[in-house]
Design goal:
Helices cover 36% and strands 15% of the residues. The protein is α/β, with parallel strands linked by helices. The chain has two domains: 115 residues, 3-Layer(aba) Sandwich (UDP-N-acetylmuramoyl-L-alanine:D-glutamate ligase), CATH 3.40.1190; 125 residues, Mur ligase, C-terminal domain (Protein-Tyrosine Phosphatase, Chain A).
Length: 259
């Protein structure tokens, strides 16, 4: 997996048998640019001449096709979601499954997997902290590392499929567009517990408070442990969603492992 962008990422020294670009979202703008076209160009750097590249973006920037044409890469788009059974939740995961299927198809006969094995694999596939659901003290805990506007929109759409009063435990890094992240999901959240993160890129709690609208119901907590304790002992909410950063979820998982 490419760590950041594509063109200049260290992983890109490897020549792939097939490249996959899931989608193009606005993130890491200091390094990749602040438009989908600019970011698309950076992602396109993982393409190779005469080598398949599959993209799942439903509205791809033209920079992807332009770069493919310039270097002679074999770019195709997975426009239709996989309609079979998957364990991962969210419509976006059906599109990701379609990408996985196309990648396997492109790798035949090198990767000998038949359709039955593929469907079983997709049905059983699981990813930690991607709408990961745990039950603790009879409460539904959702852990999701969504940390940009696009990912949080997908999280919100999945939450909307089951409307229940929801408490959020949230924090983020200061170089993210936090107001857009909050706006993307605030209609799904009834109350927010915001927590500090112990990393250099973390936003200060007071700065984070200022990202919320005046109508938001927020409480600042001294640390993740106190936030989770409060969430698990409230009678008002049966669903708790923890998101905003990999660091937010990692801190929460350390605490939840004790329950």
């Amino acid at each position: 997996e490419v760590g950041l962008g594509g063109r200049l990422d260290s992983v890109n020294i490897v020549d792939p048998n097939v490249s996959i670009i899931t989608n193009i979202a606005i993130d890491h703008t200091d390094y990749l640019g602040d438009t989908r076209e600019a970011i698309g160009f950076e992602k396109a750097g993982i393409m190779r001449r005469d080598t398949p590249c599959i993209c799942g973006d439903q509205n791809p920037p033209t920079s992807l096709q332009n770069h493919a044409d310039n270097i002679g890469a074999l770019l195709t788009f997975a426009n239709h979601p996989y309609l079979g059974k998957i364990s991962l939740q969210g419509e976006h995961q059906q599109h990701n499954a379609a990408l996985a299927i196309e990648a396997v198809n492109q790798l035949q006969p090198m990767l000998s997997i038949d359709k039955n094995q593929l469907s079983i694999g997709l049905e059983k596939a699981n990813i930690l902290a991607r709408f990961q659901v745990k039950t603790v003290n009879n409460k539904t805990i959702v852990l999701d590392v969504a940390h940009n506007e696009a990912a949080i929109k997908s999280l919100a759409e999945t939450l909307k499929s089951k409307k229940v009063p929801t408490l959020a435990i949230f924090s983020a890094l200061k170089d993210k567009n936090i107001k857009l992240m909050i706006n993307a999901i605030e209609s799904c959240i009834d109350e927010w517990l915001i927590v500090p993160l112990s990393v250099n890129r973390a936003i200060k709690i007071q700065d984070l408070v200022e990202k919320f609208s005046l109508s938001s119901k927020i409480t600042t907590c001294k640390d993740m442990e106190s936030a989770i304790h409060q969430a698990l002992n409230t009678q008002q909410y049966q669903r708790v969603v923890i998101f905003g950063s990999f660091h937010t979820v990692a801190d929460a998982m350390k605490i939840l492992d004790k329950y």
